[in-house]
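hi support,

uploading two proteins for the ticket. first:
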Amino acid sequence: MLKTRILTAAVVLPLFLLALLYLQNIFWAALLLVLAVTGSREWCNLAGFSVRNTVLFMILTTLVGGELLFLLSEAVEINAYTSAMVWVYVLSALFWSSYVPFQLKHPCKITNTPALMLIGWLILIPATLALYQLRAISPVLLLGFMGTIWISDTAAYFTGRAFGKRKLAYHISPGKTWEGVAGAVLAVVIYGVVWVFVFADGAYMVTLIPLLIILTVLGIMGDLFESLIKRQAGVKDSGNILPGHGGILDRIDALTAALPVAILAVQVFNFFQP
């Protein structure tokens, strides 16, 4: 399993970086839409949709996601920091800061199809738009925020394995511990200090580092929320498109919670604007 995970990462990560750095905007948007639709298919399986509802959800995801990406692409041509999609990011922030914590504390399986569709869109579409707009601002900035999640995940894993005793959410994900969370936050703070002094000339210290900590917490909640949904669906992975890693949702669960808030903060605090 470990060998398969490493081989998949060795192939997928360079391809992703090449796409991020060199694809034209229209092809980047197309790639993001394909990933969103693939994620929507996985969500249909987790939600237990019928064939009819699966087809409907995927078609609507394609139409809505495609239209919003088109509108955003036009807006960023004029101003990469455009607030055209701020309402989408705000809805995402409210979802992850209010509904998800309540659901994690008081798990309740949702069976209402329209509600499950809405949740699926709140997970997928804001993250897709955030990936497009952050890249339009700066691919390096997008990598910086994604790096926050990657560092957080890695630090939480190794700290949890070495020191973990107090379970974070045993009923959802038995392997996660409060010690792992502490390790993740500490690693991200160090990462933030390096970012501030090496790449931002000491600017944004009082805003960027707290933001990275918030993104870390959101990433953990995104991970836990997907684990809860998978547990309720009785599956280990959201899909099998990535050998050794599961599905698209398994790889972007933390990013779906963190990136919309990241671009929202960039707009509110004017990070890195010329």
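and the second one:
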Amino acid sequence: MKNHNLLVGMFVTAAVALFGAGLFLIGNQHKAFSHHAIFYTNFQNVDGLTKGAKVRVDGMDAGEVESIQIPSGPAKKFRLEMNLDDRLHGLIREDSLVTVETEGIVGEKFLLITDGSEHASEAPARSTLESKEPFEMSKLLEQAQGIMKQTDTTITEVQDTMNDVRGHLDATLETATSAIKNVNGVVQDVRSGKGSVGTLLEDRATAADVRQSVANIRQTTEKLNGSSARIDRIMTEVQSR
């Protein structure tokens, strides 16, 4: 009987010891036996972040997301409560920034708090830290598609403009070619003696008569100028007398 009681006592003692050790390990893992500080932050989009997600300060595990308060309307933001190890409190400043990050490419989501600048004051417990909205690949793809559509439209407009310019150039070239052909025909007609100009250029007798007539007109003009000068002198003498 005594041996039975001894065995029972040893079993109970071992069970209590194991339970205490397990409780200590679990509490230590969740930092239950360390001092904590509460901080808040706000996000328009939590990007799949859930309660209990890790919170890191400069890459070091510092705590977890204690709760996520759902906003009452679309214009408001999610309010996140973060339970952090107080030993890292000195790294959290008033200009620290909270972002949503991902473990690897498709890993779990966690919050990352960047350390603030040295000149900034230490953020007090239960203060709200500034946040940066998570990067959304879907919006980037939508913007890329919009840019591609605009590029296609611009290319189409440029092609239409080039076609119009090409059409105008073709018409201008045709007009210029026709004009050059007409000029060439006139020159050939003149050289061959066709038309009045051609006759004057090719008929030497006619050309000589034209030159003589021009000379006679010049002489007559000179005589008239001389007579006009003599008349002016006579009128001057009459007026003086």
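thanks. also noticed: Residues 137-191 form the longest helix (55 residues).
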